[in-house]
Every structure is written in structure tokens, then in C-alpha cells.
Amino acid sequence: MAAAAPPPAPTPAATALPDPTPIGYPLFTRIRLATASDVPHIHKLIHQLANFKHLANHCSATEASLSSTLFTSPPFQSFTVFILELSHTPFPPQLHTQYSLFSPITQTITLDLPIDDPEAETFKSNDKDCGFDVVVGGFVLFFPNYSTFLGKPGFYVEDMFVRECYRRKGFGKMLLSAVAAQAVKMGYGRVEWAVLDWNVNAIKFYEDMGAKVLQEWRICRLTDEALQAYANPAI
Amino acid sequence: MAAAAPPPAPTPAATALPDPTPIGYPLFTRIRLATASDVPHIHKLIHQLANFKHLANHCSATEASLSSTLFTSPPFQSFTVFILELSHTPFPPQLHTQYSLFSPITQTITLDLPIDDPEAETFKSNDKDCGFDVVVGGFVLFFPNYSTFLGKPGFYVEDMFVRECYRRKGFGKMLLSAVAAQAVKMGYGRVEWAVLDWNVNAIKFYEDMGAKVLQEWRICRLTDEALQAYANPAI
């Protein structure tokens, strides 16, 4: 019978060397209410969204048209925009909330690799209270809708967009969750939005989060000459 | 060859009898902005609409929930209701408009037969300036929506309803046209609403009026427990 084998030599990992430094790159995120000073960024994001959908020729929004139609009433009462900001350094604590109804939402995520943002300069945030590396990464535009059957309001999300280099990190979910949280806070009954029926990945994402896709309903749209004509009917 | 036939004897219609009295019953109509005092009628109309759609068990609107959520901001800025009123006598001239943005729309139609309204007492209008035979016949509820691509608002029609005895007279078209006219007046870009895909009569009616049915889009809805859960996400 052979003698008991000697204990195996310790592998390098089992030596007294210190644990490897945790791998990761922190990215600080903030969702805040947009204001009129964000219109230039929102305008660029809308046009990137139109390009992404291959609908650039249908996009006639200008900084002037956005400025004259957004931010004309208090947030949540009408058209409301949340801005997603990203920074490599922590956001300063909020000394005051912008509005009593909403405090900016900050969150820190850890990335495996740093993100190279080729448009960092273009999308540098205009919030003067923040560091110089804060960039705008996306937005969501929503407004109150109403359910006659529930007898109460909800929110309708018209558009949501995250810039290309920041996708697949959960930021879309963060923006949509911020809208959902605000709806719950205000006692609203629903959050709704529209999706293209062939966008199966998006539909799966929405269904996984608990949303129902209303298969039987179709949106009707009256616009341009037909709208003008219908505004002056003969019974 | 036979002699020329004598001229035919005059028929009774060709005699000197006077023309028959024009047949018809005038019905005077008015579309006006609803106010908080219309909530009891709106509440009953919403429940009739729910019954009509066989969705009564999904209808939880109460007078209290409607009162606390409607008419809390000026018309057209948020949820807005037009009321359709009907009368056998002309409406008095408008001494003043309710709001500078909207003057009630009056129109007279001629019916072949008078309408028997079995609910006339229940739906008697509460407008003190009108005669005693004015009844509420229907409503439309709408609110501003927003197109990021156009960079301007539109109107979304959430629900429209005409009581059974007044259907097929063009009142639905009158209500929808009033919304379209207001959209044009305010420089808005679109009027939108939803229709069930199996409601082929409604779809034909909408397409005949020039509306497009967006076949590829589906509405997503987050509500109840799923909304609550999504409001507190972990990225």
C-alpha cells in the first residue's frame, strides 16, 4: 500500500496573494425632469430616433417647434420629458428638488468595460451644478391620458430613446420604470405606449415586464388635408 | 294609320293642387364644452358605453372619480369633454362664449320621423339658459397628445358615445368633426383614436372620412400589480 500522497502544491490562487481587484467601471446615472434649456439635446435625440426607425423624412420637429410646444405647463400635467444623464463621477446630492412632485433618480451601475461615447461633446449636459463629464444619454416623452372606464388618468409614453453607445445596459428599463413609478405615486391607473407588431424583441421585453399587448386595437389617424376637410363637415 | 291619340287625362298630381307640405321634423343640436355639473350625465353615458361594448364589469368609473379627475384644468390643455345636446326648439343665441377658445356649435337637422327618447327625463340638460326639452344625447372625451416627429401636439379621442335612440343620424360625425375643427383652430397636427380590428363598419366609416388605420402598431398596457412591480425595478 503506497504511502499517503503528499498534499498538492498550492496553486497560485490559493497562496496568500491578495484577492484580485474587483473588475468593473462604475457609471453614475441620473434621471431628471427636462426643462426648456434641454431642447437642443432633445431635438438631436428625436432626429437620431427618426434615423433609427428609418423615418428621417417624416421628422419635421425643429428646436423652435419643440420650444413653443413643450414645457409650457407644469410637469406631469401635460407633455413631460425625463432626461437620462450619465457621468463617471457621482452626481452631487440634490440640495432641492426641481418640483415637489419629482426628485431626480440616481443609480450607479458597474460596467465590464468602459463606454466610448463618440458624441460626448455634442451631448454634454447643460446642468451647471454637475461635473464636466456629464452627458445626456437618452430621454422619454410622456403625457397624461385618461381611461373613462377607470375614471382616472394614466400616462402615455410617446417616445423613448437611448443613444447607441449606451444601449443594452438597462437604461430603457430605467426610463420606463421612472414613468411607472411616477404613475404609481400619482395614483394613476395605467402606463401605455405603442410598439410595432414585427418588433418581436421589443414585444418580448414588454411582455416579460408584465405589460399586455392589446392585439385587437388599431390606432386611427386623421392628419393633413383629411383633417382640414373633416373639420368643416356637412352632416 | 290611326288618328292621333288624345292627350292623356291629367293625373291628380298634375292638377292645380298645392305642393304637399314638406315632410320632416326639425331637431336642433348643440355641441358645447362640458363642465363639472355634467358629471352625473357623463357618468351614466360612460356606463351605457361599457354596456354597449359588453365591458360593464371593467367599468369602475364613479361620479366621485370623474369629478376628482376631470375639469381640473382649462379645456383643451388636458382632459376635455364635449357634450351633444338636442332640442325640439332652437337654442338661444350665445350671449357669451364659455371660453375664448371655443364657441358652442349649433346645427339643425331634419328628421323623417320624430325620435322617441325613453330616457329624456334622465338626460335632461342642466343648462339653465335653455328650454325644458333639451336633452344630453352623447359625449366625446379627448385630450392633447404629442408627436415628437412633428414637434407639435394633436388630440387623442379616448371615447365617443351617442345614446341608442339618436344613432345613425350623423351625431358621431358631428362630435368628431368638432374635435377636428378645434385641432385645426389650435394648429395641431393630428387627431387620433383607437378602433377594434373586427369592427369593420367603424373602420370603413373612418377610412371614408380620410383617416388612416395604422395596421402595424399595437398598444401596450402596464396596469395593476405589474405597474406596481415595475415602478420599483432592479437594473
UniProtKB/TrEMBL annotation, chains A, B:
It holds the Pfam family Acetyltransf_1. The lineage of its organism: Eukaryota, Viridiplantae, Streptophyta, Embryophyta, Tracheophyta. Residues 81-225 form the N-acetyltransferase domain. Transmembrane segments: none annotated. Keywords: Acyltransferase, Transferase. InterPro entries: Acyl_CoA_acyltransferase, Diverse_Substrate_AcTransf, GNAT_dom. It comes from Quercus rubra. It comes from the Eukaryota. The keyword Transferase applies. The keyword Glycoprotein does not apply. This is N-acetyltransferase domain-containing protein. PANTHER family: DIAMINE N-ACETYLTRANSFERASE, GH14572P-RELATED. GO terms for molecular function: N-acetyltransferase activity.
